[in-house]
């Protein structure tokens, strides 16, 4: 009996797990979080459905006009597939006999899918064509992202040295220093490479027609991004979160680490093993490099080239976040309404891994409670990264706060997903 008792050890939860609610409460009280939350509650920031699709596959504009420079809905997939609406319309149609209703309903769903694919192919071509001039000026594959990051850093230094920065304002607002590119141009430069999926995609649609939707549901990476159904998008989001949040050392970018003070540890790109970088890059939804190149880099142990791709994603998030926050918190014409598409909200949450495996982001964004949860997670994410930075009425530049290319910021942060504690 004594032997059993001495082998019993007191179980203690890790300090990181215990501190989750405390850090969440701290983030929710930061000036940046409160400013974003106030914008949303006051109606200055709105999330709306960009288009309302009826069962005849025609679109009608939302009652709120989307902010042009912040949204690119034509390059993103739908958030709701109107299967029930189509079946209900057929059920109530007196011209369709009772014995034909089941077949007619599913036939119209197939026709809807084909028209959606047609619209997606056209939009993919438009994005590629419309961004050709922007690509000449900003070639994201050859250093343009790094130049834009330096542009942000220079604006931060300018703000920090300006006399007006000495007086603290009561409200958090973004300094009105425009970037040489707007957010719509940035994200379309990232998404324009979806055009290279069209040959395989078109061939599968031509051969299998309506049945091709099943193929794209199980193999979503074959499908252009804006042609994905909600089912295919959920499959893609599960693949992304599964391969980047595992506690196993050879999956994702390794678990997030904290120091004794509870702060996120600094991790440069070259401190991440090659296998982990490859695992992260191959699952990133909007990859800036083809999979076969990544595989060659891994096999030949070309760590520098893999780290370069990882740094590009880091830079993309920094620029994208900065442009979004500048748009939402801009000081000029502060009363102006900022309207974001539900598609952009879902895409921001997925790219930044602000969700759990098996969560249906499209279903959440179409529910008022779910939409508030997604927004809350995004606000917490922004507060963690950018609170107290000079661009948003703080004292430090982003690099001073986090260091240069801190890859820890790309790791899955489970505490931000635990929004029930706020």
Automatic annotation (TrEMBL):
The keyword Transmembrane applies. Keywords: Membrane, Transmembrane, Transmembrane helix. It comes from Saccharomyces uvarum (Yeast). The chain crosses the membrane at residues 198-219. This is Pnt1p. It comes from the Eukaryota.
